[in-house]
Automatic annotation (TrEMBL):
Residue ranges, compositional bias (Acidic residues): 448-457
InterPro entries: PORR_domain, PORR_fam
The PORR domain, residue ranges: 51-385
Protein name: PORR domain-containing protein
Pfam families registered for this protein in UniProt: PORR (PF11955)
Annotated region described as Disordered, given as residue ranges: 424-468
UniProt GO MF annotations: RNA binding
Amino acid sequence: MRIFILRISNFINQNLKNPQWIHHHQHNPNFNPIRGMSQSTSIPKKQLRIRDHGYDNYMEIEKKTRKVLKFQNLILSEPNQSIPIPRLETLAHRIGFTRHEASAFLLKFPHVFEIFEHPVQRILFCRLTRKAILQIEHERNALADQVSRAVTRLRKLLMMSNGLRLRLEHVRIARSALGLPDDFEYSVVLRYPEFFRLIDAKETRNKYIELVEFDPELGICAIENARERVYRERGSDAEDVRFSFLIDFPPGFKISKYFRIAMWKWQRLPYWSPYEAVSGYDLRSIEAQKRMEKRAVATIHELLSLTVEKKITLERIAHFRMAMDLPKKLKEFLLQHQGIFYVSTRGNHGKLHTVFLREAYRKGELVEPNDLYLARRKLAELVILSPRKAKVDRELVGYRRSKLDDEMGQVTRAYVEDACEDFKGGNGVGQSEDAEDDLSSDIGSEVDSGDDNDDFDGSVSMQRKSHE
């Protein structure tokens, strides 16, 4: 105790000799020199973002994929699903490209876009490759197969909101992340009237999706299942994991002694579930505010768990801020919990922020992938493939076609020689007709009736020459 008092006195004596320090604190009635020396055991409000290159590299590929999707939608909107290059350069400004950047961008991804010359108009056209079309069909099938799960996700999303309703426009903006089809208003909301209903709010002139009935069986958070799994695998103390979250700090994150104590206290702090209504509680106390802050962490955690890829942009989370009682400064709030979430600024020159759920990823890949996620990753695989691989594929296709043409030519000549031998050894036109029928049946539907008459006349002339 004496040593502590001596340190305080030395600190005050040293600063009393500094006139700037005296001028700054002489009019401050709340100044306490002990407070400046003590270390807080609460989580700091402002923290620097520590980069995790695994997520940033993921977003670098995602940035290219988003641009590719813009061109894909533009090409698929055309009647023949192909667009002239001059028209594409004219419409490039709609998707954020200049006139000359569009053509250069298409040439970078030959596995997705194919540029060819129109046989009649003699101008360059662009269309999707066969691999890209198969990827789109695979994604559509995966999206159609998981409609029932999309209904469950939308029900849980509405259960977390105040009043069990959300704006239709806000859900439409986040439909891709939630795995909802583009026409979800008709294929999901109106198709299941036992779960949802559309409401026109006269006071705000907006449409809302409202949940018909709250289902307690769906009110189980993903973090609760994760806690149960950790408790079974590791055998941790039930009191330690009752209100805790899975923490995985990024590489290079410095954890001080006071921060470790603050995290230990925060992990054991009870909170209200995101599916529990808090309108009946008194939220004016400090303890209630701490619980609401942890409830906001649980709400964002559950929102990310409802997405297909366990990630969503920060701007789309902000649309649900008022309906789910989230804090105003979302980015600063998420940076306080870098062991649970990761905020990436890659994409759109740092203006776009993507929030990842750290526990759902391992080495840049989803731990529990679903069919829709795998279908979308196939497009990313086509994007990162080397252009040299596309050139090799074209050469292999050309080689196979030429080889197939040679084989078909040899088969055709063999059939013609057999037919000529039958004409030479036969006793009439009937045998020649049988040989001609065999030739036509083997070669297939590519030979029409006019060609059959020409072959028959040629075979008859060959028979006359043999008799002469």
